[in-house]
Amino acid sequence: MKTSPLGYLDAAGMRAQHILPLTWFTLSVSIAVCLVIAVLLWVGVRRRRVPSGVDIAGIAVERGGDGLPWIRVGLLIAAVPLAATLVWTMVVLAAVARVPANPALVLDITAHQWWWDVHYSGALPPDEFETANEIHIPVGQPVLVRLHAADVIHSFWVPKLSGKTDVIPGQINQSWLETEQPGRYLGQCSEFCGYQHAHMQFEVVAQAADKFAAWRAAQLEPAAAPASAQAARGLEVVQLRCALCHQVRGTSAGAVSAPDLTHLMSRRTLAAGTLLNTPGNLAGWIQDPQDLKPGSLMPNQYLSAQQLTDVLAYLETLR
Amino acid sequence: MRAPDYRTPRTGIDSVEHQGKLLRMWETAPGIKGFFSTVDHKEIGIRYIVTAFVFLGLGGIEALVMRMQLAGPNLSLLTPEQYNQLFSTHGMTMIFLYASPILSGFSNYLWPLLLGSRDMAFPRLNALSYWIYLASGIFLYVGFITGNGPNDGWFNYVPYASKQFNPGLNEDFYALGMVFLGISVTVGAANFIVTAFRTRAPGMSLNRLPILVWGTLTASVANLVVVPAVSLAFFLLWMDRQFGTHFFDVGEGGHVLLWQHLFWIFGHPWVYAIVLPAMGMVSDGLPVFCRRPLVGYSVVALSTVATMILGFGVWVHHMFATGLPDLGLAFFSGASIAIVVPSAVAVFAWIATIWLGRPVVTTSFLFFSSMILLFVIGGVSGFMTASVPVDWQLTDTYFVVAHLHYVLIGINVFPVVGATYFWFPKITGRMLDERLGRWNFWTMFIGFNVAFLPMHLTGLLGMPRRVYTYDAYPGWEALNLLTSAGSWVFAVGVLLFLVNILRSLKVGALATQNPWDAPTLEWSVSSPPPPYNFAVIPTVASRHPLWESRLGEDQALSSLDRGMLLDSGKETIATSALDAAPDMILEMPEDSFAPLVLTAGLSGLFAGLLLIMWTVVAIGAVLSAAGLLLWLWPRRELRERASAAEAAHG
Questions:
Q1: Among all residues of chain A, which has the CA nearest to that of B468?
Q2: Structure confidence at residue A309 as a pLDDT band (50, 70, 90)
Q3: Minimal CA separation from A231 to chain B, in Å
Q4: Which of helix, strand or coil describes residue B462?
Q5: Percent of chain B at pLDDT above 90?
Q6: Which pTM does this prediction carry?
Q7: Predicted confidence band at B650 (pLDDT cuts at 50, 70, 90)?
Q8: What's the pLDDT score for residue A81?
Q9: How far apart are CA A3 and CA A6, in angstroms?
Q10: Residue range B588-617: mean pLDDT, rounded
C-alpha cells in the first residue's frame, strides 16, 4: 500500500493529509458496519432456522415479536457516526477547500488531450516560462494551481498531495499543493477524456528551495545553440518538422499546440508519463507514437535513419 | 365520447361457467396475430423480463471482454476506442436496458395480480412501452454493432460528446436512442402511477399495498419527474451536433456543466428508481420465508418514499470535483449522508424480520438475505463518497466502480434472481430446481465478491476508472487478476441461472397455486394465472389476505371467491385513490396493433433523424399518426354499451 505511486493512504501533501484521518474514520466505520451486519445476518439465519427438507407450508405463520425496537435502536446507533462524519466533513472541507491567500507560486496548468501544459508565472514576463508534464514546486510553500482546459474535461489529481479538481472548458478551477517532503509524486488525469485518458499522467517534483531555484533558473534559459554539426542538422529537422506543433525557445520552433521541448531532457518521462525518457524510447516515440500511444495527436514521423540520429543528437542537448 | 359507466356490478361466486365466459373475452388470439397485438400485462411482463435478461447477457459479455483486457497490465487485446465503446455500451446496457426494464417487467407481470385487478390501467400504453423499449434497445445496439456505439461513458459528458471531438455517428445513436427510450419509460411510469392509484381491489387501501408496489410507484413518480431532464439534455446535444446550436458550446456562450446538472438531476433519482422496486421484492419475499409479516411495514413504506424525496437533492455528489462553491457542496454532502437513514430503516427491518422469524432457507431466501449484506457494503461505500473531501480522492477511481457494482448487482441483480426463484412458479407453473439453485447462488455470490470486494482496495491504491490499460504498479496487478477471475466465476453463476430456467421450463416440478404459502393475492390464483387474473374481483380486508386467518390481523376477512363478476365485457373495477372504495367499471381495450404501428412509425422517425433523411422522417411521422388514429378510433361496441347503460340509468 505504501508503494503504489497513485495510492493516497500514505499522503505526503498538506491537502491530502488533512483528509486522511476522516478517510480512515469513515473506512473503519464502514468495515465495522459490514461486519456487524454480516454477523447479525449469519446468526439471525441460523438461530431459528427451519431444518432443510421441511415443507414450507408446514411451518406456522406467526405474528412474531415486535421488530420496531430493532429499527429504533439501529437508527440511534447509526446516527452517531453519521453525525460525526457530517461535522468532521464540514471541518475538513473548510480546511482544504479554500485556496491559499498568499501562494509562493502560481501555476497555470492547461490540460490537453492527452498531456499537461504548465505555465510558471513570474513578476515580469522574462520570469515566465512553459514546460510540460513535469511540475516542480518548492517544499514547505503553498502553490496555487489554476486549471484551464484546452479541449474537453480533464481532472487534476496528485493523490499523495491533493484530491481531484476537474479541469473544465469555460471556467478556471483552482487547486493547491503544499508538501514538506521532497520527492516525486505521480499525477493522473481522472476524468474520462478520450482515447488516451489512461496515458495522461504528470509528475510533481517537490524540491528544497535552493534546488527549485536552480531548476527554475535553468528552465528560464533558451535552448543552447547546437555544438556539433550533427546536432545542427538535427535542429534543422526539428525546425522543419517538429516546429509545426512544438516550441523550442531560442530557435524558430515556436508552436504551442504540443509540449514545450526547450528542456525536454530535463524531464523524466515522455508522452505524459507513457514512457521513461531514454534515448531508445525517445527514438521510438518520434517514429511511431501511434503504436505506443494509439490515438495520440502526435503523428508518426517516418524520419530516415540519418534524420532520426541527427534529431536525437540535437534533442540530447535540450537539458 | 364514452360516458362513464356507473352500473352497479353484479356480485356472485366464482364458477366454471363464469370462468369460461371470462376466458373467451380475455384470451389473446393465438399465433402471429395475438403475438403482435396482445395487451395482456402478463404477456408484456414476460417479454420485458426476457428482453432485459438478454440485455443482461450482452452487457455481461461486454464486461467479460473488458476484464480480459484488464486481467494484466499493458495488455492490448482491445484498442482504446474499442475499450471506450465497450465500457460505455456496458454501462448503457446495464443501466438503461437491463436494470430498469427488468423491474418494469416484474412489476408489469405482478402488479395487477398483487392489486387484485384484471390488467394495468392502460393496457395498450403498456404494450407501447414494451415495444418502444425493444425498438430503442435495437436502435442503440445497431449503433454498437456497426462500430458506432457510445464512446463517452453512459454519463456522456460534453464537450467530448460534441461533434468537434466526436465526429462519428456514435453520439447521434446514443442521443436519439435515449430520447426514444425516454418515451417508453415515461408512458410506462404514467401507467404504473394510475394503476396504483385507481385499479386496486376494493379494500386495498394504501396501507395495504405490497412494498414492491410502493417501490415501483415511487420509482415511477421519480421517472416522470426526471426523465424529461435527460431527454432534454440528449436532445440539446443532438441539436448542438446536427444544427450547430450552442447549448454546450463554451466558445459561443454555452456551458458544459449544464450537461452534468441535467444528466445527474436525472441520473441520481434513476439510481433509486432501479433499486427501490428490487428492495420491494425483498421486503415482500423475505417475510414469506421467515414465516411472519415484515417488521415495520409502515416505516419501510415511508422510507421508500423518503429515499426518493431525498434522492432528488443529492445529484451534485456526482459533481463534487467540478469546482462548485463550497457551501453548495456542503449542502449536497449533508443530504447524501442523510439518505443513509431511510436505507438503514429497510436494512434493520429485514434483519429483524429474519431474526424474529423462522427462516426457511430456499434459493430465493439466499438471494434475498445475501442482498442485505451486499446492500450494506454498497451503502457504506456510498456513505464514504458522500463526504466531499474524502470523495475528492475516491471519485473516478475503482473504489467507485466497486461501489456502484455493489449497488447495481447487489441491490438489483440479486433481488431479481431471488424474485425469479420466488415468482417463476407463478409465471410458468413450474418450480425452478432448488439443488441447481444452491450452485447458482453460491457461484454468483462468491464470484461477485471475489471480483468486486478487492476492487475497493484497487481504488484505494489509486487506480483510475475508464482506463483501457494500466501500468504494473504495486498491488494493481494481483488485484486486477483477482477481479477478472471473479468475474468469470460470477458469469458461470449467471449461466447456471439460465440453465436452471431453461431446464425447469421443460422438466421442473409442477407448481401448486401457492407453493411458498405466501400471503398476497397473486398466490390466490392458479399458476400460471388465467388471462383474466381474477374470476371475481377480490375484496381485501388486510395486508396479508392469505394469512389473515392465521394472524388474526383484522376483524373483517378478505373475500376471494365471492365478489364482483364483471363479465358483461372486458371489465375491471376502478377504485378510489386512498381507500380503494369501488368507483366505476373500467372497460378494458381489446388486443390492438396500434402500439406496434406507432412504435414502427417512431422507429422510422428516429432512424430518419439519425441519418438526417427527411423523407424517412416524414414516412415515420405519417405511420406514427396512423398508429395514433388506429388507437383512438371510436369503437362501436363500447359506445353502444355506454349508451345502453345511460338509458338504464334513466
A1: A198
A2: very high
A3: 34
A4: coil
A5: 93
A6: 0.96
A7: very low
A8: 96
A9: 9
A10: 96
Quick one: angle between helices B434-460 and B398-405, nearest 10?
160
What is the C-alpha to C-alpha distance for residues A25 and A18, in angstroms, rounded to an integer? 12
When the pLDDT of each residue in chain B is averaged and rounded to a whole number, the result is 95
Chains A and B: how many Cβ contacts under 8 Å? 286
Chain B residues closer than 8 Å to A30 by CB: 380-381, 383-384
**pLDDT above 50 for B72:** yes
Angle at B391 between CA B386 and CA B396, to 5 degrees: 120
Instruction: Taking residues B632-640, report their average pLDDT.
Output: 70
Subunit contact B380:A4, Cβ cutoff 8 A = no
Cβ contact, residue pair B384, A26, below 8 Å: yes
Confidence of residue B8 (pLDDT cuts 50, 70, 90): confident
pLDDT at B140 over 60: yes
DSSP assignment of chain A: --S-TT--TT--BHHHHHHHHHHHHHHHHHHHHHHHHHHHHHHHHHHTPPPTTS-GGGSPP---S--HHHHHHHHHHHHHHHHHHHHHHHHHHHHHHSPPSS-SEEEEEEEETTEEEEEE--SSGGG-EEEESEEEEETTS-EEEEEEESSS-EEEEETTTEEEEEE-TTS-EEEEE-BSS-EEEEEE--S--STTGGG-EEEEEEE-HHHHHHHHHHHHSPPPPP-SHHHHHHHHHHHHTGGGT-B-TTSS-B--SS---TTGGGSSEETTTTEE--HHHHHHHHH-HHHHSTT-SSPP----HHHHHHHHHHHTT--
Q: In this predicted complex, what is the ipTM?
A: 0.96
User: Across the interface, do B550 and A61 touch by the CB < 8 Å criterion?
Assistant: yes
Partners of residue A97 in chain B, C-beta under 8 Å = 326, 329, 388-389
What was the pLDDT predicted at A1? Answer: 44
pLDDT surpassing 50 at residue A222? yes
pLDDT at B9 (0 to 100): 86
B361 vs A contacts (CB less than 8 Å): 45, 49-50, 52
Chain B interface test: which of A15, A18, A70, A290 (most B C-beta within 10 Å): A70
Cβ contact (<8 Å) for A195 and B344? no
Q: In sequence order, what are the residues at sequence separation of 6 or more whose Cβ sits closer than 8 angstroms to the Cβ of residue B164? A: none
Residue B396: half-sphere exposure toward Cβ, Cα within 13 Å: 30
Asked whether residue A91 carries a pLDDT value surpassing 70, the answer given is yes
Condensed to tens digits (0 to 9), the pLDDT of residues A225-248 reads: 999 999 999 999 999 999 999 999
Q: Nearest chain A Cα to B380, which residue?
A: A30
CB contact under 8 A, B293 and A64: yes
- Which of A192, A199, A270 to mutate to probe the B interface, most B CBs <10 Å? A192
Say which residues have a Cβ less than 8 Å from residue A316's Cβ, sequence separation at least 6. A231, A265, A279
Q: How far is CA B219 from the centre of its chain?
A: 9
- The label of the residue with cell 510558471 reads A120
* Contact status, residue B491 vs residue B106, Cβ threshold 8 Å: no
Cβ contact A63–B552 (<8 Å): yes
How far apart, in whole angstroms, are the C-alpha atoms of residue B246 and residue B223? 27
A201 — pLDDT class (breaks 50, 70, 90): very high
Give residue-wise pLDDT tens across range B412-453: 999 999 999 999 999 999 999 999 999 999 999 999 999 999
B11 three-class SS: strand
Residue B183: C-alpha distances to residues B97, B173, B188, B599, B602 (Å): 14, 16, 8, 10, 10
Res A88 pLDDT > 70:
yes
Give the mutation candidate from B380, B431, B514, B542 for the A interface (greatest A CB count, under 10 A). Answer: B380
- CB count within 10 Å of CB B12 equals 15
CB of A195 within 8 Å of a chain B CB? The answer is: yes
How confident is the model over B201-205, as a mean pLDDT?
A: 96
